[in-house]
Amino acid sequence: MMPIALSVNGRKVQAMIEPRTHLADFLREHCRLAGTHLGCEHGVCGACTVLIDDKPTRSCITYAVQCDGVAVQTIEGFDDDPVMQELRTAFSREHALQCGFCTSGMLIAARDIVRRLPDADARRIRIELSGNLCRCTGYLGIINAVESVIAARGSKIAAVSSAAAARPATPFHAFVPTDQPAAPALTAPVSAPEEARTGWTRFEESFLVPRPPGAVWAMFADIPAVVACLDGAELTEHDADTAKGKMTVKLGPIQAGFSGSAVIERDDGAQRGIIRGAGSDKGTGSRTKGEIVYRLSPEAEGQQTRVSVTVEYNLQGSLAQFSRSGLVRELGRRLVSDFAANLNARLAGAEARAATGAPLNAGRFIWAWFLDRLRGFFRRRKI
Ligand code: FES
Ligand code: FES
What residues flank ligand 2, with Cβ below 6 Å? Predict the structure, then answer.
């Protein structure tokens, strides 16, 4: 058991809890605040969204012990909040709820949009709310309700801050204490989803390799070596311009193995490459197609190489619900981050640390991330 002390809806709460207790269970069972609902318990549906230090956060993938010293606000804590009052009225007027299961998370996400994006139109609201799933309404009433509150408030709300406004769409993240390092060692932000083609998800990353561009470019021409740096990837056939293989991804209880092929184009002069591929998973009946563009540029007077990667993909079938989520983008970030680490290890002559062909496992990321935070917790308390 571990001690925590935090503020919940403005009230100080102290407790001894099991380290494995997630925040949603803590709120529902210890604090008796059952307005926080649990749907998927995998960070996908958004039903469990609460505010942690004023930021919407998935309480089902946030361990309660990480919340020591923070301020949590649940749906029960907004009785005096004017924006929430307006949203509640608008949700009733616009028939934005039926069973109400999604509504507490939806309202907390909607309030964040109203405060953060006073100019948001229906399209932006849809993007921002894409991390909150509703099985009943068809979303139209919800979008109309949020739009009507934004319109009615007009210029009453000044954007909270440019940093907050730039925050990505409704987050699919767990809480990360500010004194802890962010998990991925990547430098470029995830690009806004609206930059992608309609129905496609897009993100951009970059990483630094401590080798000259020539060495990195040569490595990228070695298809088996590149595939060996990708967790979960398996190469079955290839020549200089094409490759066939399988990518296995494990997301919570779901494991999907996408078999497919890719065409590779390389521009030696510009040190830029494009990989276009398509694949399908028989188990889930899902299909995907995508494009990865990578560019090399010299840094540190040509001694180092920045690798910029843009990934754009479209997912159809039963796994398509995940493609809208920040969780998948986060998984993509971690995939690129691990790829960068493996590539560096390989270029340094060491054995790539994850060239095992084992499935890319989201649970492993979450577990590693949790252990990091747990260590930080003990360090802070000097236990
Ligand atoms: S219950 Fe937390 S996101 Fe679904
Ligand atoms: S109102 Fe039923 S899930 Fe949204």
Answer: 97-103, 134-137
